[in-house]
Write a structure and sequence with these properties.
Blueprint lengths: L1 H30 L10 H15 L6 H14 L6 E3 L1 H12 L1 E4 L2 E6 L2 E7 L4 H4 L7 E5 L2 E2 L7 H8 L6 E7 L7 E6 L1 E4 L3 E6 L4 E6 L6 H12 L6 E5 L6 E2 H9 L7 E7 L2 E7 L11 E5 L6 H11 L4 E4 L7 E7 L5 E10 L15 H5 L1 H7 L15 E3 L5 E3 L8 E2 L9 H8 L2 H12 L1 H4 L5 H10 L2 H11 L6 H6 L1 H17 L1 H9 L3 H11 L25 E2 L20 E2 L1
Parallel strand pairs: 11-12, 12-16, 16-17, 17-22
Antiparallel strand pairs: 1-19, 2-9, 3-4, 3-24, 4-5, 5-6, 5-7, 7-8, 10-11, 13-23, 14-15, 14-19, 18-19, 20-21
Helix pairs in contact: 8-9, 13-18, 15-18, 18-19
Length: 580
């Protein structure tokens, strides 16, 4: 009998275990809120939650879409610059830094529900195919491509594509009765980060760098090689509006101006070994007088360059306090082609400053509103309103520089609000100025094509009472005429309108030449050279009254979100057209 019972014992134990599991599951469901008991870590929690949603949610859910939306929210809890880029957006986000993309090579604008060619990029596929500025693209690959449903995403999706592929465009051209079919073989289209370089006067060169990418250093050297034979004895580097890019590009350009073994920048992080970047002494422009222009939209790698020049007492920095981004991101790719740019370190200028402005993890709104807060406190109009952390650092000569966010310039230039009215804001923000510029150029090409230089073209446009023509155009397009405001904003309107027309006709470089003609930043730079103040002096040297000294991977050094539109009212830009 005992033997029989012992043989059945395993069976009884198995039954007991099963019953125990069933009872336990019942009470767990009843009293534990249907808790999933095998989740032990936060990582498991996320993956298990997605599985539960996929299997048990009341409606069908696209889990991939949920993940795409969740990633950015998770990264927001870290810092304002760790970001997620979906697979479809990776190429677009990287094209400026890579220095090229595959497309047809045009600047275009969507106007009256039709894609209009604003400019042909010289040497690109569209140029070789004889596409012309002013052409209307009405079909793509035999299908109609006009109407209110056309937007920038659709245009770029159809015009960009794999190198060597062919796109057939149906074109309506002024003076030609029938539609023209133009096949274009897509190819590499250059995206220049140095978009303007010329001589300001007989001795002073000017270079504008709009981003720091793969080809920035090579473009910079080409610009210098062009300017040097023209008698350049001084140089202005304009970094206004430059949001950043690759750290290495800024280091390479900085190296050209520094003697051997000078610190340019160093990085440190919790799991990131300290990296120091020092000059090698081979720079060709170590004794060239230099001025660097910055403003509140100069960020990241631009701040590395400006900080290196300031802390090494190598250049005069003029403008307004820079953005304040001192966090380093490294791109981490996923198998589906998407990417996370994760903050792995902080960077420090040679004096030891981290220029990152304060932030609270998860409070993105407060961080984004920093530029608005600067306006509210008067920082754009007076250097006395600039806030610092109180931490004082020393340059090589012993000058005081300050922590707390951004690079504080040696010479302050207030923002010019003269002429800014709600009428100007309305016509600018609505895109009416850029639309008028295209309309005017398109209707006066025969005359405007006679002008190949910015300043003669600007003189002609002023003679045509261009503001009066614009006001009539704007009124026809729904913007009420406000005579008093128009008189107040007349100079600002004229500058913006003419700048856009020149940009559309001759390119952004020519627009910059026109806009710099009465730019207070440029005027101050020329005075600094004239007074021999480009090389900062030690504190014990008497200052002039005009000087204001105020208290091996590619790293991504750029603000990860777009500046709000209200900060984009800068009349230093040309046509608001898109490249494809």
């Amino acid at each position: 009998m005992k033997y029989y019972a012992s043989r059945l014992l395993p069976f009884y134990i198995s039954i007991a275990v099963v019953v125990g599991v069933l009872i336990g599951s019942f009470y767990a469901n009843q009293f534990a809120g249907n808790r999933v008991s095998f989740i032990n870590t936060s990582g498991n929690k996320i993956s298990t939650l997605l599985e539960v949603i996929n299997e048990r949610y009341v409606d069908k859910v696209d889990v991939n879409e949920v993940v795409e939306k969740a990633f950015p929210q998770i990264l927001k809890e870290l810092d304002p610059h760790s970001t997620y880029v979906s697979a479809k957006d990776v190429e677009a986000s990287m094209q400026e830094l890579k220095g090229s993309f595959s497309g047809i090579g045009v600047q275009y604008m969507i106007y009256d529900d039709t894609v209009r060619v604003v400019r042909i990029i010289e040497g690109g596929p569209a140029d070789e195919a004889n596409l012309r500025a002013g052409d209307r693209i009405v079909t793509i690959n035999g299908k109609s491509f006009v109407g209110k449903s056309i937007d920038n995403d659709k245009v770029m999706k159809n015009l960009k594509g794999e190198k060597g592929s062919v796109v057939r465009l149906g074109i309506r051209r002024n003076g030609v009765k029938n539609m023209i079919i133009i096949p274009i073989t897509r190819g590499d289209v250059e995206v220049n980060s140095v978009d303007a370089s010329y001589m300001l006067d007989a001795r002073t060169g000017y270079i504008r760098i709009t981003s720091w990418g793969d080809k920035t250093y090579a473009e910079f050297l080409r610009a210098m090689a062009t300017l040097s034979p023209e008698g350049m004895d001084n140089l202005v580097i304009d970094l206004r509006g430059n949001l950043g890019g690759y750290l290495q590009a800024a280091v390479e350009v900085a190296n050209e101006f520094l003697p051997r073994n000078r610190m340019i920048v160093y990085n440190e992080g919790r799991n990131f070994n300290k990296e120091e970047y020092k000059s090698d002494g081979k720079g060709a422009y170590q004794s060239l007088p230099l001025v660097v222009l910055i403003d509140e939209t100069s960020a990241s790698a631009s701040e590395i360059f400006a900080g290196a020049m300031q802390d090494n007492d190598r250049a005069a920095i003029i403008g307004r306090r820079s953005f304040g981004k001192g966090l380093v991101q490294v791109p981490i790719e996923f198998r589906d082609g998407s990417m996370v740019r994760l903050t792995v370190a902080r960077y420090y200028t040679p004096s030891g400053r981290c220029v990152q402005k304060p932030f609270k993890p998860g409070d993105e709104a407060d961080y984004e509103n920093d530029l608005l807060q600067r306006a509210a406190t008067g920082e754009y109009f007076s250097s006395d309103s600039i806030k610092t952390s109180g931490d004082i650092y020393k340059t090589r000569l012993g000058r005081n520089v300050y922590g707390g966010g951004g690079i504080i310039p040696d010479y302050f230039i207030p923002r010019d609000t003269l002429g800014f009215t709600s009428y100007y804001k309305d016509v600018y923000m609505s895109g009416t100025i850029s639309q008028f510029a295209f309309w005017y150029l398109d209707n006066h090409r025969q005359v405007l094509n006679k002008y190949s230089q910015a300043l003669p073209l600007a003189k002609y446009l002023r003679s045509q009472r261009i503001v009066d023509q614009f006001v009539s155009y704007a009124e026809q397009h729904g913007i009420k005429r406000r005579n008093l405001m128009i008189r107040t904003s007349h100079a600002l309107l004229e500058r913006s309108i003419i700048g856009n027309i020149i940009g559309d006709r001759l390119g952004i470089g020519s627009a910059v030449i026109y806009l710099n003609n009465d730019d207070p930043f440029v005027a101050r730079a020329l005075r600094i050279f004239h007074n021999g103040e480009a090389f900062p002096k030690a504190p014990n040297v008497k200052k002039t009254a005009s000087s204001i000294i105020v208290p091996k991977h590619q790293m991504w050094m750029r603000p990860s979100y777009e500046f709000k539109t209200r900060f984009a009212i800068h009349t230093t830009q040309g046509a608001e057209a898109t490249q494809s």
